[in-house]
Amino acid sequence: MTFSTPLSEVLGVGPSFSQKLKKLGIANVRDLLFYFPRTYVDFSRITKISDIKEGGTYCVKGELTNLKKTQTFKKRFSLTSAILKDATGSLRIVWFSQPYLAEYFTNGDVVLVAGKVTRDKDGIAFVNPSHEKDRSSLTHVGRIIPVYPETRGLSSRWLRTIIKRVLATISEIPETLPESIVREKRFLPVKQALWQIHFPNSMESADTAAKRFAFEELFYILLFVLAERKKIAEVKAPAIPFDPPLMKRLTNSLPFQLTDSQKKAAWVILKDLEKPRPMNRLLQGDVGSGKTIVATMAALGAMKAGLQVAFLSPTEILAKQHFKTVSEILQKFKVTIGLLTGSADRFVSPKLPNDVIEISRARLLKKTLEGDIDILIGTHALIEDKVKFENLGLLVVDEQHRFGIKQRAKLLRRSVLIPHLLSMTATPIPRTLALTLYGDLDLTLIKELPEGRKKIITKVVPPSARKSAYGFIAKQVQKGRQVFVICPRIERTEHTAEGEDIKTVKEEYEKLSKEVFPDLRVGMLHGKLSSREKEEVMKKFRQGKTDILVSTSVVEVGVDIPNAAVMMIEGADRFGLAQLHQFRGRVGRAEHQSYCLLFAESNSPNARARLKALEQLDSGFELAEQDLKIRGPGDFAGTKQWGIPDFAMTQLTNLELVQETRDAATKILDEDIALKKYPLLKQKIQELRAKLHLE
Ligand code: ADP
Ligand code: MG
To answer: Ligand 1 centre from 575 Cα, in Å?
Structure first.
């Protein structure tokens, strides 16, 4: 038996179990051994029966007598009962629905039994306890026992039995980590670590083993990420000269002054673009910090150097907004800008500065290929293979957390030279994740918001105050402000539970426009509208012809309506913190005092904690750290695709471990970038590559 032995060849794993294991992604011996316990129960201490009290959980060793099998409750349940005796007394045991136990045990067997002792009409008893006949090596009682993640049809008891059998049978397990690291970190060797994580001698040694495996998972990720980084540093990219007077002309034409943070970020980026190596940079800045203008400066630089720019947006609404903004900012600079979305394509040409021209997809693609489009802005459609550039020099990815690394990689491989990459995000990446999953990127931060922005007042509104909230909204509209109302769904469907208290855009639109605000102009926006309709709705809102926009999360990221001052969110508990912060970022984008009103459906402690955090914290960075604490990194944007096992996920928040691991990976790569001395590591990295579909 080796790591690659299929489980169907393991004694005790029949076809039906094989099938169930496959569903969990467990196909061979290695997968099984790396299916780690969710938690442990300590049944290592044996209690005397005379010391047992109602309500406690115990493990007891004794002799079984009075074994009986009966039917109860009008024969609906089978019931196996027995008396357990030790030197200090005796106690009843009842097992429901396990009739085979009456045959499996015989009176006089010495057994260990573990579980909770509760009271029924006949006194106190063990009810459905774990059990095992006494033998030298115990698996289910009389020790610390592993509890595996809940799975249909695969009990922890069954998994324990099989895993122990495999551990006892497998002769050789190759050490996966470099010996030097195992020694230096005083890790358990791999086989011992596997034993200790499944069947620990103590909770401490379970911890020690877990630490080794967490280190290992992080180590592979870091090796991969850091090796990618080194590789990119050796590739050629078109150098884009830094042209200060040109940039000065651009910034002077803006209606505002750049913040110091924006200037610094732009400087770092423009300097980086000068190098003949691809930039790989993430521009992080809270919602409303003004990332678009910084990206536009980089785009102008690239375009003046005779290169093309691709500008990727996660939604059509945002792509259209960027098309408009960037066209306006660059109006004087003789730039041809194209817009490519799922529906209507168009472009502006410098020869017709104020005219937006509809264009067929075919013509737009042809123009792009021939280099007649300087900046092509678009949605996912931009990543399709049909879209070819003559000379792509810079790729800007807005709201990068909405895209997978696979999509980014695809775009980057688009031309002869690798283009520079500028990703942008308002969802800050906690430091630990920045060092690991994003370790191949350089980070630039926009730390401050433009001057004059006021703190957005955020309040969780109880149902009883809904009316006064509407009154408040009406007053804001009187003052000339605009309002977003976000609902979690478009409409009720057959999937909506009967009587479920969920707000839908269509219903709220009806209610708000007819009953609550009959005198105000209410609009509706959601993903089922045609792209024309969406555009029309956004245009009216932008022009101030709509007072209140009822919308789904389609406006979550990027949308920039400076006059909007109230963001009301229905079913706020259904959204994650980062998402809520993004919604909130749709207001407070100019000098007006702005408000975020949160309405919750559920009152669960987790939901309350999240909404409270939003009330108290304004900075996206603090919120992200908080979110990481409340939910763990598993839900964090972009972490899923790595397929990191849960046990390692939790370690992603451990800064010390992350740093330690990063140092170790750097050291190995400095010595041996091709990992020639470490074939097993090399294989791991290839597996990771395949998992990320980068090949
Ligand atoms: P985000 O970083 O969220 O993408 P945007 O780039 O959309 O933010 O900018 C938000 C708003 O702030 C826009 O209306 C933009 O014109 C404006 N803005 C950007 N920089 C400044 C600045 N330095 N001073 C004032 N307003 C600015
Ligand atoms: Mg933006």
So the answer is: 25
User: What's the token pair of residue 355?
Assistant: 């005219």
The domains found in the chain, sorted by start residue, are 1-41+143-173 (1.10.150), 45-141 (2.40.50.140), 244-274+290-425 (3.40.50.300), 457-492+501-617 (3.40.50.300)
- Rounded distance, CA 446 to CA 290, Å? 8
| Average per-residue pLDDT for the chain | 88
- Whether residue 351 has pLDDT greater than 60: no
For residue 608, what pLDDT is reported? 86
Encode pLDDT of 480-517 as tens digits.
Answer: 999 999 999 999 887 777 667 789 999 999 999 999 99
Residue 458 pLDDT > 90, yes or no? Answer: yes
How many Å apart are CA 237 and CA 274, to the nearest integer? 10
CB of 426 closer than 6 angstroms to any ligand 1 atom: yes
- Ligand showing the shortest atom-to-Cα distance for residue 292: 1
Tell me how far apart the alpha carbons of residues 318 and 342 are, in angstroms, rounded to a whole number.
13
**Which tokens belong to 584?**
């909130």
User: Are 420 and 240 a contacting pair, CB within 8 Å?
Assistant: yes
Tokens of 314: 């996660």
Q: Residue 512, SS3?
A: helix
**Is the CB–ligand 1 distance for residue 692 below 6 Å?**
no
Looking from the CA of residue 562, the nearest atom of ligand 1 is 14
CB of 590 closer than 6 A to ligand 1?
no
| Full DSSP string of 324-339 | HHHHHHTGGG---EEE
317, 560, 561: residue to mutate for ligand 1 pocket, most atoms within 8 A of CB: 560
Query: Atom 26 (ligand 1): residue with closest C-alpha?
Result: 450
Atom 18 of ligand 1, nearest CA residue: 290
